[in-house]
Amino acid sequence: MARPSETEVAENAADDAAVAEETLTGFRKFLKKLSACFWELEEHLADLFGLNDSKYQTYVDEYFDEIKRKEDREAFERWEEAERQKELDAKLAEEQAKLEGGEGEDVGLTSAAAKAAEL
Predict the structure, then answer these.
(1) Which helix (H) or strand (E) holds 31?
(2) Residue ranges per domain, the chain?
(3) How far is CA 17 from CA 21, 28, 39, 89, in A?
(4) Residues 6+ apart with CB under 8 A from 117
(5) What would the DSSP string read from start to end of 68-112?
(6) Whole-angstrom distance, CA of residue 41 vs CA of residue 35
(7) pLDDT value, residue 71
């Protein structure tokens, strides 16, 4: 008699497992479902009591929060500097406009060369 190949053995084993699954008695099916329910309940209880959480998660969260605060602080400082620069640019532009438009104060010439130039 010839030996069956490995693929035939695997196919037969899968068929046997399917037949065995179908022929389970009612009590065995109940136990299988109860066991699956128990493991799911255990998973939910572990989540509820924090057993699945990292032991050092609070430290990791604090570290990332500190990094975020530092980045926010630096971004705010850059924004403040940009606002100060805008205000300075606006003041300089206003002064330049006054000087060019003649709206500014009259500046008297005091040097001897300037007085000579007026004559």
Answers:
(1) helix 26-48
(2) 1-53, 54-100
(3) 6, 15, 23, 82
(4) 109
(5) HHHHHHHHHHHHHHHHHHHHHHHHHHHHHHHHHHT-SPPPPP-SH
(6) 10
(7) 97
pLDDT over threshold 70, residue 74: yes
pTM tops 0.85: no
How many angstroms separate the CA atoms of 52 and 45, rounded? 10
Angle made by CA atoms 34, 36, 41, in degrees to the nearest 5: 90
DSSP 8-state assignment for residue 49: T
pLDDT tens track for 20-68: 655 667 788 888 888 888 888 888 888 888 888 788 888 999 999 999 9
Q: What is the distance, to the nearest Å, from the Cα of residue 71 to the centroid of all Cα atoms in its chain?
A: 13
Q: Burial of 62 by CB count in 10 Å (0-12 exposed, 13-18 middle, 19+ buried)?
A: exposed
